[in-house]
Every structure is written in C-alpha cells, then in structure tokens.
Design brief:
Elements (H helix, E strand, L loop, with lengths): L1 E6 L2 E6 L9 E10 L2 H8 L1 H4 L11 E8 L11 E4 L7 E5 L3 E3 L11 H14 L6 E5 L3 H12 L4 E5 L3 H9 L4 E3 L14 E6 L4 H10 E9 L14 H7 L2 E4 L5 H17 L8 E5 L3 H8 L8 E5 L5
Parallel strand pairs: 8-9, 8-11, 9-10, 11-12, 12-13, 14-15
Antiparallel strand pairs: 1-2, 3-4, 3-6, 3-15, 4-5, 5-7
Helix pairs in contact: 3-4, 3-8
Length: 314
C-alpha cells in the first residue's frame, strides 16, 4: 500500500506492507482522510518535531471495511465507516469501538467523523438556549461547523468574526446573521459584553481577548481552537472574567466513548441534511499531499478542510 511519512524535508511517499489486524480490529481501505489543524502545526514545525527520521500523520479516516477480526461483531465487509483514527495511507487498522457506520445517504468523503464529533461535543456541552446571541470567533472548518450546530440548537442571532473575506462569506451562506473582520467590528463595552455564548475557534491570543470582551455577564465562552502557537501559552484578564462571572469551558474531548457518541450524532445530522460539509471540503489525491499542505497555508487558495484520497485500486 502507498503511505505518506513526514520527514524534516516534507512528505515522503513509499510502498508499505498492508497492515495485519488483531481479533478485535478491522482493516479499512481508506476512501479519504482529512488534514487536521494538529497535522498542519506538526508540518510547520517538522524540523523540530521529526526527531526519529519520520512521522506518520492523519486521524480523520473514512473508508470501507475489507477484513474483520474474529472477535468483532456488528460490522460486515463492505460497510462504510468513519473512525477516530486513520492515516495518510491506502489502508488503516481500527478497533471496533473506534468506528461508526456512515449512513447510506451520506457521501463518505464528507463523513469527517472525528472533527465533526469534536464540534458536536463542544456545542452540546455549552448548552445553547433558543434565542441566544452567539459569536463565532474564527470561521475555519471547525468554526463553521460550530456555527451550523449553534443554529441547529436554536441560536437567535449569530455574529461571525474572521479576517479572511472568503471565510466571512461562507459564514453568511451557512447561517450567520452578520460577519465582520475583527478590525471592523464595533466591540461592546468590555465590562458588559453582549453575547450569551462566544465560541472561540481560532486558537490564538487575540481571540481570547475578544471573547473576554464580547461575552456578557454570566455568559459562556467555549474554547474550540487548538492553542499550539507559543507552546500554548496565553494571557487572560482574570479581573474581567471574575467581574463578569462567566462560565469558561474547554470544548475539547479526550474520552473516546464521548467522542464516539458525538460522532454518531454528527452522522445523523449529516444524514438529515441539517449539517452541510460539501462546501467546506476540498479533495486532493494522496500523491499530492505536499501540495495539499502547501495550499492550506496560502490564503488565496480559499480552502477550509482538505481530504486526501488514495488512488483507487484496480
């Protein structure tokens, strides 16, 4: 099988032996694997991150079951599944408890179970109430999925902030009431704020500052962005957090059972048509992985989520 490995100089593609499975595992032929923000960060810092020659990346895999371990039940060969794992390769191995079946009416290349589950879990935990005024800070893939979920939950007004025009346009298309560049937005009185819920989905210091100012007293801030720059170090205005009596929630999830439950809900939302990903996904061949990562960092490429497709076998 073809697999991509990250080296200090970029990705190297080579043929590897098809992996073997254990009794509680399944072999999945990859249909697509999304590129995560964590993969992007590792690529940017690869000269420091790659310490043992190479790294195997990717954990947003979707594919077809081609082999099943003897202790596995509930799956059949030919099932379309999305996974908590995966990789940038033609095949991957998954434990049975890491998989969710893709509904028949959902394009498997849009069944990005793992990142969708992260958004579903975060928005469910913040408990948006019907009519709530919600701000989305950062309109990349995760922010725009959260925007749609906030709308599904009954948000009354959704204001989206992002510096890139194409992202603001997509936010409006997917249901935002208004969208602004951060520099153009008229910030409310920071001691009062105006939003019931602020969803931070950019992972940098300025959005932490903006979220602190925008959330109302006794409002809620949920942190969805992954803070990797500056080794994750951030400053917060604790005086304002104390004064405003806000709830601040880390929206990330590390418990696989909770993420799997959120993944099932995400697949149901895709199946019902309430959640739309078709406008957010760009498909690249696995053989173009280096170009895919390069394009992610080029603003004029206007990509939200790249899914890598292995070359179909004959």
């Amino acid at each position: 099988m073809l697999a991509a490995f990250l080296t200090k100089d970029g990705f190297s593609l080579r043929e590897e032996r098809q992996p073997e499975i254990g009794d509680n595992q399944l072999l999945i032929q990859t249909l697509g694997c999304g590129i995560c923000g964590g993969d992007q960060h590792t690529y940017k810092v690869r000269k420091e991150a790659v310490t043992d020659g190479e790294l195997f990346l990717g954990h947003e895999g979707t594919g077809t079951v081609v082999a099943i371990g003897g202790d596995v039940s509930g799956f059949s060969e030919g099932d379309l599944v999305t996974s908590l794992g995966g990789g940038f390769a033609d095949y991957f191995v998954a434990n049975a408890e890491e998989l969710v079946k893709v509904p028949d009416n959902v394009d498997p290349l849009l069944a990005l179970g793992e990142p969708v589950a992260c958004c579903v879990h975060a928005v469910d935990r913040i408990h948006i109430c019907p009519g709530d005024k919600v701000a989305i800070l950062g309109c990349g893939f995760m922010g725009l999925v959260c925007l749609q979920l906030a709308k599904i939950a009954g948000a009354g007004e959704i204001v989206a902030l992002d510096p890139m025009p194409y992202r603001r346009e997509m936010a409006l298309e997917l249901g935002a009431s208004t969208a602004f560049a951060p520099s153009d937005y008229k910030m409310p009185d920071p001691d009062i704020g105006e939003f019931d819920v602020v969803i931070e989905a950019a992972g940098n210091q300025p959005v932490i500052d903006d979220a602190t100012d925008m959330v109302r007293q006794h409002g809620k801030v949920v942190l969805v962005g992954y803070h990797e720059s500056l080794d994750g170090m951030r400053q917060i205005n604790m005086k304002r957090w104390n004064f405003k009596a806000i709830d601040v929630l880390n929206g990330h999830v590390r418990r696989d059972d909770e993420k799997l439950s959120a993944m099932r809900k995400g697949m149901q939302l895709l199946s019902s048509g309430q959640l739309q990903l078709d406008k957010l996904v760009s498909l690249y061949p696995l053989t173009n992985i280096e170009q895919a990562f390069s394009d992610i960092f080029e603003a004029e490429k206007e990509v939200f989520k790249i899914v890598l497709q292995p070359t179909p076998s004959n």
